[in-house]
Amino acid sequence: MRKIVMVAALASCGAAMAITDAEIEALIGKMTVEEKVGQLVQLASAGKADGPLSEDATGVALPADVAETVRKGGVGSLIGACGVANFNAFQRIAMNEARVKIPLMVGHDMIHGVMTQAPIPLALSCAWDEKLWYDCGRLIAVETPAKGCNWTFAPMVDMCRDSRWGRIAEGPGQDPYLGGKMGAALVKGIQSRAGALPVAACLKHFAAYGGAEAGRDYNTVEMSESTFRNVYLPPFEDGVRAGALTVMPAFNTLNGVPCSVNKWLLTDILRGHLGFEGFTISDWEGVKECEFDRHGMAETHAGLAVLALAAGMDQDMMSGLYQRELVQLIQDGKVPMSEIDRSVRNILKVKNALGLWENPYIDEAKLASQIDLAAHARLARAIAAKCCVLLKNDNSVLPLEKGARVALVGPGAEDCDSISGTWSAYIENRFEMTLPEGLRGAGVDFTYTPCYDWKKGSVDSDALAAAAAKADVVVAIFGQRGTESGEGWSVLDVALPKVQVEALDALKATGKPVVALLMNGRPLAIPELAEKADAVLEAWCPGTSGGGAIADVLTGKVNPEGRLTTEFPVATGQLPLYYNRLRTGRPTEVSAQYLSCYRDGPFRALYPFGYGLSYTTFAYANEKATVADGTLTLEADVTNTGRVAGVETVQAYTRQMVGVESRPVRELRAWRKVPLAPGETQHVVLNIPVAQLSYWAKDRLVPAAGPMRAWITSDSVSGKTLEFRL
Questions:
Q1: Is 637 exposed, middle or buried (0-12, 13-18, 19+ CB in 10 A)?
Q2: Cα separation of 435 and 543, whole Å?
Q3: Measured between alpha carbons, how far is 582 from 579 in angstroms, rounded to an integer?
Q4: Can you tell me the distance from the alpha carbon of 391 to that of 495, in angstroms, rounded to the nearest whole number?
Q5: Is residue 96 scored above 50 in pLDDT?
């Protein structure tokens, strides 16, 4: 793997190096042991609870304990949005009052926006649009300084195949190729220097966190090295190549060794194999979680500090182990100064790349000129509309007919937490956020009656029937609250709650067409909706302009173009479920008793990876696969066979029929979004480097060879099979 040197990796920041490497080395040489250790420490910007405050020279009140630690050079970064005034005040202490003048970084989890929230990342991935992810990153870059931060713990590029895991909401789905492209685009957007102060991105969680057993957060991960390298590692490789300045190791163990103290992972793989030259920071108290009565990697906190630093963990978030233990360990000769200097050097180079010596402060005038909430709301609305996935549309119930009377029923239509989703602590931009606001702005004649809760109580059948009686069509909300996905939100069951199924039955009994509007942070098992609803629109948690975006899709102002990036199960018992599974020796196509299937339900997904409908239809013809000059070329004529313009996401998949190890039934290799007018045909050509088809097996990268199959098609289960050979 090519080595990513710091200067090249930081090209996405557009950063001019403020000081030289020689000056960094001279600075390290001037630092005391305590000051060096301080750079490896992250503390909360809010300080101790109920602690005293102190004022800086400009009269800004700061937590006294944090201010004094900064003054002594005892901290390298802070966590928590501290506000512009506090950020600048802390920075003035670091640059004017500390003995060695080293600027601070302040980080927080700005995952899919700050004041303005785009849809959750899982929804963003369904747009299959790298520019959209870049635009979202630029939005984060502009708004993050407004909260007193210059570092965001994003993107999360964990692959997830089990939607019981709540943090599936924070990532780009289940495909490593698509996830890597999206994560890299977000890194470039975040580090585009678009705001009043450059912002650093942080790839997380390194690595395989999304493979936790049984979808239970923080749980054990056991997997082959082939699976690790072919599925879970590639998005991090793409993020490193995009120039991500920092990486956050995961909480979990990986094949028995916690990622926080895993030298193979943090040194051999991250720095050796991927060529990463930024710095690593633990997740919240991640190092401490390796202690005696938890992961059990050392008997003492001092022993953990030794392990973590030697493994390659540069900065410790909030556990205090480095702060309490490292100075004494150095004095006792148990930690070599070379390890301390290595981590300090990594951190100082990132701060230098951000230009913090040259300009450490948030420019308040520039910030004020950039925060155009109306423009940001329009962008968030356009993004959210592109992320909606139409799963069913019998009899063209959608888009809503002009002048149709609509009964909006169900929970969450006015619940900002459900609309914005996880990691939305700082939302301020609420332009047509709720669904009633969006429908009202679109001129829809509607009434809103909740009628049932997300998952408890009973259905108000009388209110529901009364609402439906006055309407031509019912738009009914199903799913889960936005706060019911994200960190710590693993669940046993992803089926619709009983009360929602009862509501669906009651709606069908009214005889009115039912549009099921899904708002949720994870794929759900929704066979009842697939069977009984007339239309199903997956809107996810669409962000701070979500109501307007959903209205745009429901009314046809926007033709849905989202495509799934993770599979929807028929039942929870199918999980984990993923399209790029390995083939078995007893595939379901064989007509025999002993098959790899379920006797009490289907084997395949309810809605497969790559799936999504439009208000128009598309047809494929003249599909062809050729190989020449190291390139696989897949071609097809794609026609819009409907009556309105639409965008088709043309997808390319391959399968290696014979390999060193068994290979997946399909793997995504390329895609292109193709806008087509009614009746228009485009000849679509997707060129794929043959080298891209290589895979890891038996500790090495193996070139693809022998008989192959390919598909140029609309999703991961359809299309004409094309044969070729390498």
A1: middle
A2: 11
A3: 9
A4: 17
A5: yes
The alpha carbon of residue 577 and the mean position of all alpha carbons in its chain are separated, in whole angstroms, by: 19
Q: What is the mean pLDDT of the chain?
A: 95
Residue partners of 102: CB distance under 8 A and separation at least 6: 27, 39, 73, 76, 94, 348, 351
Distance CA 186, CA 564 (A): 19
Q: Tell me how far apart the alpha carbons of residues 243 and 14 are, in angstroms, rounded to a whole number.
A: 11
Model pTM score? 0.96
Contact in structure between 627 and 691 (CB atoms under 8 Å) = no
For residue 334 the two structure tokens come to 């148990």
Q: What is the CA radius of gyration of the chain?
A: 26
Confidence of residue 589 (pLDDT cuts 50, 70, 90): low
Buried b (16+ CB within 10 A) or exposed e, 710-720: bbbbbbbbebe
Half-sphere exposure of 326 (CA within 13 A, CB side): 32
Is 671 exposed, middle or buried (CB count within 10 Å of its CB: 0-12, 13-18, 19+)?
A: buried
- The catalytic site residues sit at 283
Give the CA distances from residue 66 to residues 88, 95, 166, 703, 704, in Å, rounded to whole numbers and listed in that order.
14, 15, 33, 54, 55
**Could you tell me if 575 and 522 are in contact, meaning their C-beta atoms sit under 8 angstroms apart?**
no
- Stated as kind and residue range, the H or E segment containing 202 is strand 202-206
138 sits in which H/E element: helix 130-143
Q: What is the pLDDT of residues 359-386, one digit of tens each?
A: 999 999 999 999 999 999 999 999 999 9
b vs e for 476-503, b when ≥16 Cβ sit within 10 Å of the residue's Cβ?
bbbbbbbbbbbbebbbeebbbbebbbeb
